[in-house]
Write a structure and sequence with these properties.
The protein is an alpha+beta fold and 415 residues long. It has helices spanning 24-27, 37-71, 85-94, 104-112, 118-129, 201-216, 220-226, 228-240, 256-267, 310-323, 346-363, 374-377, 383-397, 401-414; strands at residues 132-141, 144-149, 154-159, 173-181, 186-188, 193-196, 248-253, 272-278, 281-286, 295-299, 302-307, 330-333.
Length: 415
């Protein structure tokens, strides 16, 4: 449908209640024809964002803090620098879905597209299809960059405001940005971030996206489009050269013969030790480890693995599959998961949570223990009795069943 002619003093068809000249008419100033292709499309994108901000601004203000926390949930610092604001606002308009599984950008296009000028409407449609991803520079010529999406292995050409400056003595550049595919050219929308692939950052990013896709049982393109906060958070970790804590727990059914064979392999291994046996469960851990909580648990008919860093998760799976290649794991929890553990496996998940929290308690210094850790106190002649009294005091202050179960598990660990 062609756009309808609107008078300057007519009510704006967007429904704002304002006159057209004081609403969408203002936006039209940004859509004046330009001989410069970059300026033309940049102005169109600016006009689209102004229109969305005018229309949804008050609604967004009420939930902005909550949405910002969601956008930052995978980052290191959990804060958004002012200069990165456009990355967040684009995510708000074009990625974040409402209760009807629509983004605000798509919702506006669906309800008001027929009243929009043709170029503006086409630009909004293109922005609705865009997503935040990471690109490596393949080649540069004049004002154009040839890029490859490292997650989807797709090439594209992007128009820049200024020519790209190459340097032969620098590692390859990785760019976090949102590419918008216009009719005559592709452009980045708003801010882009860059880092050098000088310490395996590209592998870190691709491996974590693949892991997230596997955990969520989806495709990478779906993650990029509807979980843009994941791209932003992983890029932030890669920039800071920080591992991301996945808090991964997975379980598989195992028969007695398989359990016995695996236990023998672990006991004879130079890399793993039997750390403790509690309530009939055998807990194995790496002999040398400085990367957090890593465990293999033989729990009757179930095998549980838990680790925090992706490299360790893969190492555990490879170790198990070297002996039991057909074993299939069910992921109980993971930082990238969007749902709770399966109901029938909640007990296995809580078993690991109790042990992990107990390990933290054992390794932490406590004022009531003169600054010593429970693990240190256990080595003393009356250590067990002191810790029993400490746990009794803890138990007297708690009111929920899960916390009581945790304290009881701590008692079993120090027995």
């Amino acid at each position: 449908m062609q756009s309808l002619k609107i008078g300057r003093n007519d009510p704006c068809p967007c429904g704002s209640g304002k006159k057209y000249k004081k609403c969408c008419g203002i936006v039209a100033e940004y859509t004046e024809p330009s001989a410069d292709l970059f300026t033309k499309y940049s102005n169109l994108m600016t006009a689209v964002k102004i229109k969305l901000d005018q229309f949804y601004g008050n609604e967004i203000k009420r939930v902005r803090r909550e949405l910002l926390q969601h956008f930052l949930r995978f980052t290191v610092e959990k804060r958004l620098p002012t200069e990165h604001e456009t990355l967040f606002s684009d995510w708000l308009w074009f990625d974040q879905m409402d209760d009807e599984a629509d983004t605000l950008g798509y919702q506006y296009l669906k309800n008001n597209g027929e009243y929009m000028e043709g170029p503006l409407k086409d630009c909004l449609a293109a922005m609705n299809l865009s997503y935040l991803s990471v690109y490596e520079v393949v080649a540069a010529k004049d004002f154009y960059l040839e890029l490859r999406d490292i997650f989807l292995d797709k090439k594209c050409e992007v128009l820049l405001k200024e020519p790209w400056e190459e340097s032969d003595d620098k590692p390859e550049a990785l760019i976090l940005g949102r590419v918008v595919q216009m009719a005559d050219a592709n452009l980045f929308s708003g801010m882009v971030l860059m880092l050098e692939n000088d310490a395996g950052q590209k592998d870190f990013l691709t491996e974590h996206i693949n892991h997230a896709a596997k955990v969520q049982n989806t495709k990478a393109i779906s993650l990029l489009k509807f979980n843009g906060e994941l791209s932003f958070g992983l890029f932030n970790h890669a920039f800071k050269k920080n591992f991301i804590n996945l808090n991964h727990i997975a379980a598989a059914h195992i028969n007695p013969d398989e359990a016995e064979a695996l236990a023998q392999n672990l006991n004879s291994s130079n890399d793993y030790i039997l750390w403790h046996e509690t309530a009939g469960l055998k807990w194995f851990k790496p002999r040398d480890n400085d990367r957090g909580y890593i465990r293999i648990v033989l729990a009757g008919e179930n095998l549980i693995i838990s680790a925090e860093v992706l490299e360790d998760i893969e190492a555990l799976r490879n170790l198990i599959h070297s002996s039991l290649p057909d074993l299939e794991f069910t992921v109980l929890s993971d930082t990238f998961m969007n749902q709770a553990p399966p109901v029938n496996m909640m007990g296995l998940w809580f078993t690991v949570i109790k042990d992990r929290e107990t390990e933290k308690w054992l390794a932490a210094s406590h004022p009531e223990l003169e600054g010593k850790t429970p693990a240190e106190i256990l080595k003393e002649s009356d250590g067990k009795e002191r810790l029993e009294r400490m746990l009794a005091q803890m138990e007297s202050k708690i009111q929920n069943e899960e916390a009581r179960e945790l304290v009881e598990y701590m008692r079993l660990r120090i027995a």
